Predict the structure.
Amino acid sequence: MLAILKDAESHPDLFAWFGAIARGQIEVWLRSSNPEVPNDLLDFWTKTGAGDLFESETMFRPTQVPSPEPYFVSGDDIDTANQCRIPKGMSVSYLVFHDGIFLSALRLADKKLVTLGDEHEETTIYSDLDDWYLRTLRKDFAESLHN
């Protein structure tokens, strides 16, 4: 099980997922958007639908965001998030999947997860979703998980 899912189980107050997405819905989005996505990120979206965590972080949803909760924001989907950043200088060779204290993206050429700096330059490369989560959000918010 992914570390982020384990943390969400033991600290549900720190994670507000948008809601699971049927694999078929994600596959429709993948066909229309054409990205190749690592299996762990695909599984994460299927189980959670992405969402908000640690009060300041948002993991973007590949499909439209449902709005039953007052804090879910229109535009917290991957397509909108990327459409907003490309005119600001982000290369189309990335697919943003997270924003908060830093920006995270999928490098489309090789399906690697990366963090991007202020000028949309790569600052760190991660081997998979667990590596990304453990070295970034989990590390930055460790104190929240121990309370």
About this structure: The radius of gyration is 14 Å. The chain has one domain: 16-62+72-145.
